[in-house]
Amino acid sequence: MASTFEQAFEAVQSLARDFDANKAHYLSTSYQESSVRKDFIDKFLIALGWDVNHDSQKNPFEQEVIVEKGVNIHGSQRRADYAFYISPNFRDVRFYVEAKKPHGDIATKDNYFQTLRYGWNAQTPVAILTDFEQFQILDCRYKPDIDAALNHCLEKFHYSDYHDREKFSFIFHLVSRDAVANGSLEKFADALPKKRGKAIQRGSPKGIDDAFLEELDGYRDTLARAFKNNNTQLDGDTLTEITQRTIDRLVFIRFLEDKLIHPENLIANFGIKGTAWQDFVSTSRRLDGIYNGIVFKEHRILDAKSFEVDDADFADICKKLAHTNSPYDFNSIPIHILGSIYERFLGKVIVTTDKRARVEEKPEVRKAGGVYYTPQHIVNFIVENTIGKLIDGKTPNQIAELRFADIACGSGSFLLGVYDFLLDYHRKWFNANPDKANKAGCILRDDGVWHLSLKQRRQILLNNIYGVDIDHQAVEVAQLSLYLKLLEEETTASARQHQLEFHETLLPSLNKNIVCGNSLIGTDIATGQLFAADEERKLNPMDYEQRFPEIIQRGGFDVIVGNPPYVRQESLSNIKGYLESHYQSFDGVADLYAYFMEKSLGLLRNGGLFSYIVSSSFLRATYGEPLRRHLKSVGTVLQMVDFGGLAVFASAKDTYVCIPLLEKGVTNSPPRIQICKIPSLKITNLTPFISEKSFTVPPDRFSTAAWSLKSDSETAVFEKVMKAGVPLGDFVQRRFFRGVTTGFNDAFVIDAVTKERLISKDKRSAELIKPVLGGEDIRRYVVEPKEQWLIFPRRGVRIKDYPAILEHLSQWKAELTPKKTGKEKLGRKPGRYEWYEIQDDVSYYEIFDAPKIIFPDICKAPRFCIDRDGNYLANTAYCLGSDSLYLLGLLNSRLFWFAIGNISIPFGIRAGEYRYRLIYQYMEQVPIRVIDAKNPADKTRHDKIVSLVEQNLTAQKQAASAKSDKDTEFYGNKCAAIDHQIDALIYELYGLTPDEIKIVEGTAA
């Protein structure tokens, strides 16, 4: 293989000379694709550094180039000629090369469409189409459309261009092995301009997941209406089920076609023998006899002869999905991508009226803020970190005794990850132990590699994989995904051979492995008849001993993994009584995932492993204390991977997660806990990063009060800082107040024009109109008001005594509704508005009118300011009943941010920095160094800090009002210099060493 540009350039020029010398022969009709691949294309790719012939990469499971033999089924080629990977990731294709024979022009719509499909379905940015004479780079970022396919060529080269150093350099630095390993394709794609106007009218810029989801949504809408129009008695649940089943069958059939498992094209021919629907039903019945499984299982409504369908609508769907027209290549789409599509698809259901059907988002999905589908690299990591550790070194017979589960499996992403990992492990084991392979039933194929037989893959699935979900449609899709993975390596011949040899259908029943039920609620909920029959049906209680008797009798599962539902406690009101009586981790405001964590550990056998991706708020939040206590009482924490403020879930920007790893059982001498903090979502290969960047902490760091993820050195500094001061809550004598939370709406918030109008009508109105600031208006040492005011009645004030304000509020009568909160309420009576306030000894106006330190509720850096102008605050801001400049300087210091970062919970990342919530329960703990008036050094530092804060208040105002760039830069630098001096004095007050200061500032090595 060539290793340098010069070697590659020389080798490819030689090939071009050879081609040119016998050009007439190579361009003739007799010169076939197989020949040009052997004579030129293989050698071209080898010159670019790719091990096409596997001269170095002997391991069949770790080869960067997969070469397909030309396979043509019914006039349609189904697999790209070359697929390229980069070690150690042999899961994700980096790009494809599609080869053609040199006769004729390769730039045809069919050739382009075929090549684009390969790349787009595998989510590669580009693909190559070549016959050696021509080398064309195609843009695979857009949904393929055969009529627009020719618009997607990015670069074209003729074999004569291989002599041009600059042109060949472009090819080399884009698709040579080392260039691809260094991200050349991604960089190239990022630099491409986005298509506009007519260029994308027939080519959507959506990825495969978004595009196929949109298409499935369209199929569901069409089918729901078509089914309901002719079968008006169908309710929403039944429509959801049969629509889902119809789509699942169509997707499964396309999979069988594109994987070359089934010997004929089916969907394209629906409607030839009868109507499209009749052909679909009869084909489903025939396939059920071959494949079995839930997909083709006879449905009493769907497959009934009396079931009527608008055939035109169904035929149109079949036409769009048929391989002849569809941009989707189910041989190239990774099965986990199908799972992610389905996970979002399942977030909606069909609801009906007497005559109509419509699709709506599920209430629980709406409340949770979306579907939290786990990124594949996280699924892989959790599986490798649990199942991988448990089976390492074990034989297939030993693994057959283990049981792995996801008890909130959804569409089956984790189950699919587990199954994929097990299949890969078994393949490698048998190829490392070939003497055992034949006896175990493995198949030695032409590539010289031992492959698992369908029977072996079936047995692994039945032995090892278990799942539960409350949603019947999710269970169906989870089974579908596992079936697709089971059949992934099959061919028409091997599938037929299995049937002849074992006289059984290809797919096993998974009804005892993947079940529908409520993982948290047992059948004992029926005791006492706490719920009506329809409500109990929705809860779908389940008894594990009944559904998994053998597993429970053996002590439980060996590993449980997953991503449990994130459902806020407000949605759990109807089952709180049950949860409280059945779960040690119960707390009135706990999220549903807390109970899944407890349940999972309870279902493990001793020594079993448990790992979820869950909200990290349980590590510190008060509601997580019972959960933390319980987890420590029944398990041993081995590892914690923290994603801080990174938004791992695309649909949930404010949900921040961690991955705990626990072992069932408590030991007297627990090991130190491995901790790793992930700084960027770009880090997708987690295992080596964690191995290199993790640190360990003693188990006592995970106390009941909170679980600390700080290193030993950081912990030591934090403890020193905490001991050096008194809690802020004590320092300000609990004078900590939130802005107005009484439900004021637009009627009470007014602008400058309205303010002047009201005062001009009645000067006394000014008594009730107050300037108001939100958290976004408060900056560091300065405010940036929005010219906004608040109508704020004091205690005992009657609105009717202020006619101008009464008239203004009357215009808002429809929007003013009674609203109650914990401490105050806003009431309305016809023609009269009154403010009722219940506060502990202090009225709001007394707080806001007085000097105070104000700050936002969420920020990514200290933003504290003195307010002496009587500003009132909205509910996005807080204040302290103090105007101490010394306290202001300390709160704006780096030391404060270090302390709050170790106390509060990250609320997200903006501009690369964590945001933290500055609510009372966190702020009151911040340690404030009390000045000893008798200590001259203390007094000197205090006075110096106060002086510097006064200077900073002036400089910040000057910076805010600067007109020129020169002044902005000057005052900005001046403020930074003053901040640095204040920080240095505060470090001295807290007695920090230079090394400790580096830890506080995050600059420690």
Q: How far apart are the termini?
A: 41 Å
CATH homology group of the largest domain: Vaccinia Virus protein VP39
Unreliable segments of 5+ consecutive residues: 70-75, 197-205, 814-842
CATH class of the largest domain: Alpha Beta
Number of helices: 39
What name does the CATH topology of the largest domain carry? Rossmann fold
Number of domains: 5
Task: Briefly note the structural class of the backbone.
Answer: alpha+beta
Quaternary state of this entry equals single chain
Number of strands: 38
Largest sheet: 10 strands, mixed
Instruction: Classify the helix fraction into a percent range.
Output: 40-55%
Beta content: 15-25%
CATH hierarchy: architecture of the largest domain: 3-Layer(aba) Sandwich
Mean pLDDT rating: 87
The Rg value, from CA coordinates, equals 34 Å
Shape: globular
Question: How would you characterize this protein structure?
Answer:
With 1005 residues, the chain is α+β, with helices and mostly antiparallel strands. It contains 39 helices and 38 strands. Strands 11, 14, 15, 16, 17, 18, 19, 20, 21 and 22 form a 10-stranded mixed sheet that branches. β6 (126-130) and β7 form a beta hairpin.
Layout of strands and helices, then pairs:
Elements: H1 5-21, H2 23-26, H3 33-47, E1 65-67, E2 72-73, E3 76-77, E4 82-84, E5 95-99, H4 109-121, E6 126-130, E7 134-139, E8 153-158, H5 165-175, H6 177-181, H7 184-191, H8 208-230, H9 236-258, H10 276-291, H11 293-296, H12 311-321, H13 335-345, E9 348-352, E10 357-361, H14 363-368, H15 376-391, H16 396-399, E11 404-406, H17 413-432, H18 434-440, E12 443-444, E13 450-451, H19 454-464, E14 465-469, H20 472-487, H21 492-502, E15 514-516, H22 533-539, H23 544-547, H24 549-553, E16 557-562, H25 576-582, H26 592-603, E17 604-612, E18 614-615, H27 625-634, E19 635-642, E20 657-664, E21 673-677, H28 686-693, E22 695-697, H29 712-723, E23 726-727, H30 728-731, E24 736-738, E25 749-751, H31 752-761, E26 769-773, E27 788-791, H32 803-810, E28 819-820, E29 824-829, E30 832-837, H33 844-849, E31 852-856, E32 858-859, E33 865-867, E34 872-873, E35 877-880, H34 885-891, H35 894-903, E36 906-910, E37 913-917, H36 920-923, E38 927-928, H37 936-960, H38 965-989, H39 994-1000
